Amino acid sequence: MSEPITYASAGVDVEAGDKAVELMKASVRRATRPEVLGGLGGFAGMFDAAAIARMTHPVLATSTDGVGTKVAIAQALDKHDTIGFDLVGMVVDDIVVCGAEPLFMTDYIATGKVVPERIAAIVTGIAAACEQARVALVGGETAEHPGLLEPDEYDVAGAATGVVEYADVLGPDRVVPGDVVLALGSSGLHSNGYSLVRKVIGAAGWDLDRDVQEFGQTLGEELLTPTRVYSADLLDLIRTDGIDVHALSHVTGGGLVANLARVLPPTVFARLDRASWTPPAVFSTIGRLGQVPRADLERTLNMGVGFVAMLPADQVDAATRELAARGIPAWALGEVSAAEDAVVDTAHEVVRGAKGVEGGGVQLVGDHPAS
């Protein structure tokens, strides 16, 4: 052996990692809460739990997720400051489903080569989304994996913890016949179904810099649109006097129907009407380009509905106004009936539960209005 082997010659640049931390410090400092103890660089993030200890019956809620193959779009466009909204949305918006307030989050980035500016851009996006969600970013890790990942490749993941009073937990046991299913609009594709989307645009020969009139921007810009982060707005809605949210569902992988079925009791049936909304152009474009069957499209993508809430019919107008004031479009998507009284359209599939959950029946009927 002619020369000694060092960590740097093996492909790991410790100094680059230190530089990335310096570049992200200011952004991370803004993603905090008063309960955070210590600062950036500790072995563990610390959070003062005194307020939790004063709760009557605190229940902790936790979630972890990633962004999936949407990172391939960010890498292809060399734009990395929005992918953090996708990560934070996928994690904290799962926590708020049970009514819990997300408190703190950590992130993990694995890359083939640490480019400080790129890592700082990713974390800056994560921190900005945490700030919007009122969640503290208390720590993270960047790992350099030469030989496992290509120099320009990376993946991101995160985990968060929240808390809710036991008496305030939302879920299937609160849903009753007569409830209305309220849809909350998505910002686009969010972070699910990108393996299908990338397959379709690849087969069609569309480049990411292609201007698409229906989108009002390039294909790449449309595909990289950040996930809407709902948690802070939904917490405010839950806490609004006169509005009694019974259950929430985050529409991610599996689509609208399956995710709604997960938060309904087996004793009820929800009938949803496609005629109540027109999905944004990106969904019809993907369907048309790939000749994707409607059932497959709806099982894979959110179709313009990022969240749903179940609440009494006489509170729908107030909830819609509250959400509109926060910039979130919302509309009545369907209604809940007792399972034995359900009017089932035999021409459409009924889904009962998903991902191991024995839930209520959900059926999506009708057709979307012409765009």
TrEMBL record:
Alphabetic keyword roster: ATP-binding, Cytoplasm, Ligase, Nucleotide-binding, Purine biosynthesis
A Gene Ontology BP annotation from the UniProt entry: adenine biosynthetic process
Catalysis: reaction(s): 2-formamido-N(1)-(5-O-phospho-beta-D-ribosyl)acetamidine + ATP = 5-amino-1-(5-phospho-beta-D-ribosyl)imidazole + ADP + phosphate + H(+)
Domain PurM-like N-terminal: 48-164
Pathway assignment: Purine metabolism; IMP biosynthesis via de novo pathway; 5-amino-1-(5-phospho-D-ribosyl)imidazole from N(2)-formyl-N(1)-(5-phospho-D-ribosyl)glycinamide: step 2/2
Annotated PurM-like C-terminal domain residues: 177-342
Pfam families to which the protein is assigned, alphabetical: AIRS, AIRS_C
Superkingdom per UniProt: Bacteria
Enzyme Commission number(s) of this protein: 6.3.3.1
Broadest EC class assigned to this enzyme: ligase
GO MF: ATP binding; phosphoribosylamine-glycine ligase activity; phosphoribosylformylglycinamidine cyclo-ligase activity
GO CC terms of this entry: cytosol
Compartmental location: Cytoplasm
InterPro entries: PurM-like_C_dom, PurM-like_C_sf, PurM-like_N, PurM-like_N_sf, PurM_cligase
HAMAP family: AIRS
Family indicated by similarity: Belongs to the AIR synthase family.
Name of the molecule in the record: Phosphoribosylformylglycinamidine cyclo-ligase
Species: Pedococcus dokdonensis
Taxonomic placement: Bacteria, Bacillati, Actinomycetota, Actinomycetes, Micrococcales
